[in-house]
Automatic annotation (TrEMBL):
Organism whose genome encodes this protein: Leptospira interrogans serovar Lora str. TE 1992
Superkingdom in the source lineage: Bacteria
Pfam family, one: DUF4139
Lineage, opening ranks: Bacteria, Pseudomonadati, Spirochaetota, Spirochaetia, Leptospirales
Domain DUF4139, residue spans: 13-63
Name of the molecule in the record: PF13598 domain protein
Length: 65
């Protein structure tokens, strides 16, 4: 990546990329109570890292198409 400016400046840059060997899928949990007709549906992501890269302290964002 090359960045050029016409004058001295300070800015932040965000770099995003896709890699193979990374995957995730959603997992759902439904909690129901006997006393009422209410329940709580929650979900979380199960992540698999076969990239060979260390993911410690990495921010992950999940999307589906």
């Amino acid at each position: 990546m090359e960045v050029e400016t016409s004058e001295d400046t300070e800015t932040s840059i965000e770099y995003k990329y896709l890699i193979s060997g990374a995957s995730w899928y959603p997992k759902y949990s439904l909690q129901l109570t006997d006393e009422s007709r209410n329940g709580q549906l929650s979900w979380f992501a199960l992540v698999r890292n076969d990239t060979g890269e260390d993911w410690e302290k990495v921010k992950l964002f999940f999307t589906s198409l």
